[in-house]
Amino acid sequence: MLTALTLSCKYLDDNWESNEYMAKLGGISLIELNAMEINFLKDLNYEMFIDNQTLTFYHKHIKDYFSRFFFQSSLNNNTSLIVL
To answer: Global pTM?
Structure first.
């Protein structure tokens, strides 16, 4: 998750935090984050762009999944959930 967050920040923003900062934030070494970043990019074939249709598809499915998960959890724990 940290690797995806780091890369998405770099992709979307010109002013991103350093890998050193992100590694500290995630509780891992800089060497480990750098290695994971390289592997992640290789797995994506260095293609970070995602079209709107694909983004909307995955957003809906992730939102639906977590809505069900937290709804069931809130019934058991008597808590509430705000879904974006």
So the answer is: 0.64
